[in-house]
Amino acid sequence: MGKVSIAIIHYPVLDKQGDVVATSLNNLELHDVARSCMTYGVEMCYIVTPLPKQREIAEKLISHWTEGYGIRYNPDRAEALHKISMAHEIDEVVTKLRAQGNPVLIGTSSRGKGAPIGDAEMRTWIEEDERPFLILFGTGWGLPPEVTARCNRMLLPVKGKGVYNHLSLRVAIGIILDRLLGERGESR
After folding, report:
1. Residue 12's CB: how many other CB atoms inside 10 A?
2. Is residue 48 within 8 Å of residue 6, measured between CB atoms?
3. What region does 185 belong to: left with phi over 0, alpha with psi -120 to 50, or beta?
4. Cβ atoms of 33 and 8 closer than 8 Å
5. What is the radius of gyration, based on Cα positions, of the chain?
6. Which of 15, 46, 49, 119 could form a disulfide with 179 if both were Cys (CB 3.0 to 4.6 A apart)?
7. Average pLDDT of the chain, as a whole number
């Protein structure tokens, strides 16, 4: 079985006009995604941003909960936040994963881009392939073409009923991780 990591991309991503921009981090993203990663056995969650102030804020928040008072107050949160690692760019993450093998890059999009792969097929691929998997989640208005072009495949988007399609990123991550890595009632 391949090991799965995720990367939340804050740069490069698109804005609503289609321009490549950097987006800001938020506190809930770090806490909620770290807990989802712990729940589903994700190896690591990389937060990708080249912005020094954003990195500083995230590292300070993580440090608060993984050292001193924070770890004593809520050890479970501390354990989950150890799943978060900061990276300047996607290539930095890919380089780290190469120590485990040639990583498989899987992109996500709410608009269904590229060569889509369904949840069941992706789940089987993860179970049968020993290589590390990196699932890329774009913030803002999603991953730009230069990032999706690097992906081996693109996951089919999470779709609800109707035309409204604006889930928060941390909710979409939870849904996708459950579909790909969650228990399905079968024996393992």
Report:
1. 19
2. no
3. left
4. yes
5. 16
6. 119
7. 92
- Compute how many other C-beta atoms are within 10 angstroms of the C-beta atom of residue 177: 20
Reading the block at residue 148, the tokens are: 């999706």
Residue 188 pLDDT greater than 60, yes or no:
no
Across the strands, what pairs with 117?
A: 155
How many whole angstroms separate alpha carbon 19 and alpha carbon 142?
A: 11
What's the full length of the chain, in residues? 188
Largest CA distance in the chain: 47
Walk me through the domains of the chain, giving residue ranges and CATH numbers. 4-24+41-50+83-181 (3.40.1280.10)
Specify whether the CB–CB gap between 103 and 129 falls below 8 A.
no
Please provide residue 40's backbone torsions phi and psi, each rounded to the nearest 5 degrees: -105, 10
**Displacement of CA 134 from its chain's centroid (Å):** 8
The per-residue pLDDT for 17 is 97
pLDDT digits (tens, 9 = 90+) for 129-149: 999 999 999 999 999 999 999
- Provide the sign of the torsion angle of the four alpha carbons 101, 14, 121, 41, taken in this order: positive
Weakest mean pLDDT among 42-56, 131-145, 153-167: 153-167
Cβ atoms of 46 and 7 within 8 Å: the answer is yes
For the chain, what percent of residues have pLDDT higher than 70?
97
- Which residue's entry shows tokens 């999470």? 158
> Could you give the count of Cα atoms lying within 13 Å of 182 in the half-sphere of its Cβ?
12
Please report the pLDDT score of residue 114 as a whole number. Answer: 67
